[in-house]
Input
Amino acid sequence: MSNIKFIYNPTAGLKKSFFSRKRPDLLLHSIHTLLRKYEIEFDEAPTKAPGDARLLAAKAASEGYDTVIVAGGDGTIGEAANGLVGSDVALGILPLGTFMNVARSLCVPFDLERAIMCIKMRNTRLIDVGEIISIKGEHPDEPTYFLESASMGIEADFQNEFLNWERGDRSALGRFLKNLTRFYRSPLQVELDGGRVFESRAHVILISNGPYAGAAIPVSPSAKMNDHLLTVRRYHMSKLQLLRYLVHVLILGSYREPKIEVYTSTSVRITSQSPRPVHADARVFGTTPISIKVRPNALKVIAGYPDSVQDSALLAKNVYLAP
Output
């Protein structure tokens, strides 16, 4: 048996192949060729349904593999990471998706050959994950983690109704517009560690483990994935101001906005008078109340090599920020 399990999403790269005219099967053949070129022996396992990457990664860890290479988008990477949290198995990433927020944060090259060279060099680092302790006041059926961010607000509401729209509910858009007014009349209560509590009517509350979310937007540029802290951002903006802010971030890469308050905490609890959808790493988990904590050094990853400290979402190896 090889020490490496290669997990891939057979449909990954469809968006890229639409533009490059390269079929997913040819993309997989290219990966096989490059892995063999760099003398990386592996056993492989394709995903067949949502959630498979988590099961396959957890099985690989139980079978004694020391590395799991995952080829896919952010969803597949996140699933596999959930299966490896708490183990000593290193996660290697071959980015095939459109935005690849985790790969971007870890400075993993988007070029496949360079990404495989990175795996060959095996620069392993330990990163934190966000853990959802309770949702709707109840513990999840299984441990639930996120690598990027969790949010309550317009984004989460939109994601929830968009999923309903995809399932055929044509009233979802109207419900989203109606909820914009109803939900934001009542405040959220946010509790941080150290006894810090505040109420907010902000349109977005964002809890970040890393700097990027959504369409590779640097929503939390100060967040580091190994500082053992969650970064909480409260957006005090009108819907128009929020839209302007997002446009500036997308175009300029950064934008100072005085109506954003930033906190750090090892745990966050959010309650609301009306249930509010909770969205984390492109998945809608349920509604408030919700409790989240950081789980330090929970996942071993193979990281790239940044051109500068500012380019990385990791603290330097000899730097540690105590909570």
